[in-house]
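Justification of resources, computational component.

The compute hours requested in this renewal are based largely on the per-chain cost of generating structure records like the one below. Each record pairs the submitted sequence with a full structure-token output. That output is archived, and it is also reused by downstream analysis tasks.
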Amino acid sequence: MQTPSEKTSRMLLSTEQELFDRIVDAKHPFRRLNEIIDFPALIEPMRATYSTLGANGIDVEKGVKALLIQFWEDYSDREMEKAVLENLAVRWFCGFSLTEETPDHSYFSKLRKRIGTKRVARFFAEVNAVLDSLGLFGNVFTFIDASTIISKTALWEERDRALRDGAEKLNNKNVEKYAADTERGGEPNQRRTSGSATNATPPWTCATDS
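The structure output for this chain reads:
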């Protein structure tokens, strides 16, 4: 019988910090960025856009750092939702733990509107100034200005509509296929053969956001 390798055992016993350290190593651009940019100081003025009443929600520092990645990587809101959920380097940089719930696509557009284009542009300008002083443009990081913010957000909306429509079309095809199969053979549970391990749950039960 095969037994787990030492490497596998060590990974299973690793702490969250150890896992992040393995994936986002000392040479990773995100670690360098955290070292040279004082994000808490730059983002502090944006906290004024939040009310002191009610639930705090997602910390604005996490959200703004996500916006920075979004513009650098040219992610639409739906793509950014996926990136911060699945990309551990992005998750680490933004400040989300491995088990922490990450924002859905609607959060990013709401955050941009709450902060406002001027504040976002000012934040990017301050980040750009630090990177420029260290000669880091044109390597890993790219320049972002106010015009970039406006043009990219318009393109992202179109891209997200295409992604949403494509998902809806796929779900509709699944519904049509399921209906056709049902008409040919009766209810799905009735068509299951003896001893079959087939799951009768329809494939479209995972709802797609509109």
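The chain has one domain: 12-48+57-182. Residues 187-210 have pLDDT under 50 and may be disordered.
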